[in-house]
Design goal:
alpha+beta, Aldehyde Oxidoreductase, domain 3, Aldehyde Oxidoreductase, domain 4, seven-stranded mixed β-sheet, six-stranded mixed β-sheet, about 25% helix, about 25% strand, globular, iron ion binding
């Protein structure tokens, strides 16, 4: 999916209800927390003037190009760069032999080479890179590199990876989690089984990967690129460059979204190596094909389920086998598997569970972090099982879910108690009770409502409407012992406040939130957020809502420390404590009204600053039976999907998605709406159209013409039935992650609606037309 910084709303608009949701002048504050403060870069992105990494420029720059393998699995017999090096305008050609430091890297497991050495393990793996004085010259030179391959049989079926020859020296098994909870021998009166397949979704960012590297006089290098975790990038890149971390600086610029393509070093490594080799600035701007081949995708997943229930529909046991295709390298697979296994039963009370999860290496394209990884795949499966169980019992699918929903204090199958607010029943009631959209009229003026659009071949008589429901959950922050910490500095100089925090703005709205926090705490309206680079203390990756929690918490703590510095002289002058003073609407007042002054007057001639950290409570790895307190907190959502299906053609149109979401606290109503709309649209893409086609390890047609993304015309109307603001007491501001859970739940809801419309078992995402066709 594209960046969710700007989202398009189809005709009909978005409906929003619930506390603190107003956007008009009379409905809520105009600054601070709770205000619909617009993102600072919103207009630039809408107008097309926002500077992405591909727009970077430096005097005397060279252009880079990367040679990639055309084979998914092959032995490299020889690499001849002589012809490329001799081409006019070519300044450098590098291979694995030119990596001066560590020749493998990885965020969790250092198993991926900067350039393939002896073996190619996936289609598109980098072999060499070229720097030249013109982009066309660089590409021609890369194509002129002669590589002799001995093509090997690729391992492309993850089920066969267990017995196949090792794809990697570390073996084909990345991780196995055997979760055991309760009585393994328990059985229910009613048993339903299912086999589910989830396809390979690409993050498909607005802009393809790009960057600029500039050599430094100390032998180091500065890299300007759209990183979402610049400090980790610096550590990994420095190790490959054979440099100290302080000799490498990552400057974040033009991030189009927090997606998997921004968490790989496919840009940073060749750029840095070429810049140091040539002594010149070097720019790389990938085309869309290179982007598809180079970055990670959502894990394709095979899931086998068996649900046990009693005669009244209460779950007794869930059995599942989950197999994630990690591609050639480990990357994020272990983390995705932990989420998949832990959430395999969904937001339901299950007294007994037997769940096995595996992540394996294959010669397929790499898999990694894509919003809701692990959780999205299992949600489609366990919600399919709940629909199947309801049909077997002759029970309403919503009623079956209501009998089993989780609440605060219940246990996950990992044995962890759900201590955060878990208003799952309230969410489900909200979407069930929301009014349904009107039925389309069978008239020529309304033909555009048919599946397939105005030019579609469908007939109104073949259209069936379906309504489906789904519940889902995600975890926030890192898991299994990840040390989550962020540092922020807040400085106030007269009427202007400045925030320095290395939390990357990925479209999730952190820079806007930082401004709101300082406005709220200090009463200063003009707040600037400094651009991110690795000279600042680390703030961690931009994923799983962590910057709202951890980095926002750090900004709040720093701002409160500055607030104390501001109020102490005033409190001492009047013989009272700072707790008796309030800051609101730009004024400082005491509880008794004796003191009343403006923030501007109190700050006049002063420069105040403070630095603070935020670190959530620790978690622990899952043990040998899948047990442990692995997650900091959870977020939940319920979605009702309404679809129209042409049962002759198998075309599906999503009419409306009604969302009820557990948000903790709404910090910016407008951005909450935008995050939910974007998440739902990304989920609809995964449900209906988005599937990167791979044949025997080779990506077929890696371009946007063969990878259909939902457009503004495809985006359904998103109706927000309720935002439950039950604050998580351990989270700063009480807020929860917003973006990921709609992505997780939307595909399952769409599949449920198609099942309701057709009566067909929908067990594969994206839904293929033949799965929605009703035979006479």
């Amino acid at each position: 999916m594209t960046s969710d910084a700007v989202t398009a709303t189809p005709a009909g608009g978005t409906h929003l209800t619930g506390a603190g949701q107003g956007t008009g002048p009379e409905a809520g504050p105009q600054h601070g927390l709770g205000a619909s403060l617009p993102p600072a870069d919103a207009f630039a992105k809408v107008q097309g003037t926002f500077p992405y990494a591909a727009d970077l420029w430096a005097e005397g720059l060279l252009w880079a190009a990367v040679l990639r393998s055309p084979h998914p699995h092959a032995r490299i017999v020889s690499v001849d760069t002589s012809q490329a090096a001799e081409m006019p305008g070519v300044r450098a050609v590098i291979t694995h032999e030119d990596v001066p430091g560590e020749d493998t890297y990885g965020r969790r497991v250092a198993d991926r080479p900067a350039f393939a050495r002896d073996v190619v393990r996936h289609h598109g793996e980098p072999i060499a890179a070229v720097a030249a004085d013109h982009p066309d010259t660089a590409r021609l030179a890369a194509a002129a590199i002669a590589v002799e391959y001995e093509v090997l049989e690729p391992v492309t079926d993850p089920e066969k990876a267990f017995e196949a020859d090792p794809v990697h020296p570390d073996g084909n098994l990345i991780r196995h989690i055997p979760l055991r909870f309760g009585d393994e021998t328990a059985t229910g009166e009613v048993v339903v089984e299912g086999l589910y397949r989830i396809g390979r979704q690409d993050p498909a960012p607005i802009g393809a990967e790009a960057g600029l590297a500039v050599p430094r006089t100390d032998g180091g290098v500065e890299i300007y690129t759209a990183s979402t975790d610049p400090h980790t990038d610096r550590e990994l890149a420095a190790a490959c460059f054979g440099l100290r971390p302080e000799q490498v600086k990552i400057v974040v610029t033009g991030v189009p979204g927090a997606t998997a393509d921004r968490e790989d070093l496919g840009v940073q490594l060749p750029l840095g190596l070429l810049a140091m080799r040539t002594g010149c600035p070097v720019k790389l701007a990938a085309n869309r094909e290179e982007s598809f081949l180079g970055h990670a995708h959502r894990h394709p997943t095979l899931l086998r389920y068996r649900h046990h229930a009693d005669a009244e529909g209460r779950l007794v046991k869930v059995e599942a086998q989950i197999l994630l295709d990690g591609g050639a390298y480990a990357d994020d697979s272990a983390d995705a598997l932990a989420a998949a296994v832990a959430f395999a039963a969904g937001p339901y009370v299950v007294p007994h569970a037997v769940i096995d999860g595996w992540a394996v290496r294959t010669n397929n394209p790499p898999s990694g972090h894509v919003r809701g990884e692990g959780a999205m795949q299992v949600c489609a499966a366990y919600e399919g099982q709940m629909d199947k169980l309801a049909a077997r019992l002759g029970m309403d699918p919503v009623e079956l879910r209501m009998r089993n929903v989780m609440a605060t204090g219940d246990l996950l199958p990992t044995g962890q108690s759900v201590t955060c607010p878990a208003p799952v029943a309230e969410l489900l009631r909200a979407v069930r009770e929301a009014p349904l959209p009107p039925l389309p009229k069978d008239s020529p003026e309304e033909d555009w409502l048919l599946p397939g659009g105005p030019e579609g071949a469908g007939e109104p008589g073949a259209v069936r409407r379906g309504v489906g429901f789904a519940l889902g959950m995600v975890h926030m922050l890192g898991a299994e012992g990840t040390d989550e910490v962020s540092t922020a500095t807040v400085k106030v100089d007269g009427p202007v406040a400045t925030v320095m925090c290395a939390a990357v703005e990925t479209g999730q709205g952190f820079t806007t939130l930082a401004r709101q926090i300082v406005q709220e705490v200090l009463g200063v309206e003009e707040v600037h957020v400094v651009a991110v680079d690795t000279d600042q203390p680390p703030a961690g990756p931009g994923a799983r809502g962590r910057h709202t929690w951890v980095s926002g918490g750090a900004v709040e703590r720093a701002a409160r420390m500055v607030r104390t510095q501001l109020l102490q002289p005033l409190a001492a002058k009047f013989g009272m404590s700072t707790e008796l003073l309030t800051v609101a609407d730009g004024k400082i007042t005491s509880y008794d009204g004796v003191l009343s002054t403006t923030v501007a007057e109190a700050l006049e001639g002063k420069e105040l600053w403070a630095t603070a950290q935020c670190r959530p409570h620790p978690t622990e790895p899952l043990d040998d039976t899948g047990q442990g307190d692995a997650f900091v907190s959870l977020a939940f959502a319920a979605i009702r999907a309404v679809v129209d299906v042409d049962v002759e053609l198998g075309a599906v149109r999503v009419v409306e998605m009604t969302v009820a979401q557990d948000v903790g606290r709404v910090l910016n109503p407008q951005q909450v709406r935008a995050r939910i709309e974007a998440g739902v649209t990304q989920g609809v893409g995964a449900a209906l159209t988005e599937h990167l086609r791979v044949s025997r390890g080779v990506v077929r047609h890696p371009d946007l013409t063969a990878y259909p993304l939902p457009t503004a015309l495809d985006a359904p109307e998103v109706r927000i039935a309720e935002l439950v603001e039950e604050r998580d007491v351990v989270a700063p501001f009480g807020a929860k992650s917003v973006s990921a859970v709609p992505v997780v739940v939307s595909p399952a809801a769409v599949a449920a609606a198609v099942r309701a419309a057709t009566g067909r078992p929908v067990n594969r995402l994206p839904i293929r037309p033949q799965a929605a066709v009703m035979t006479p």
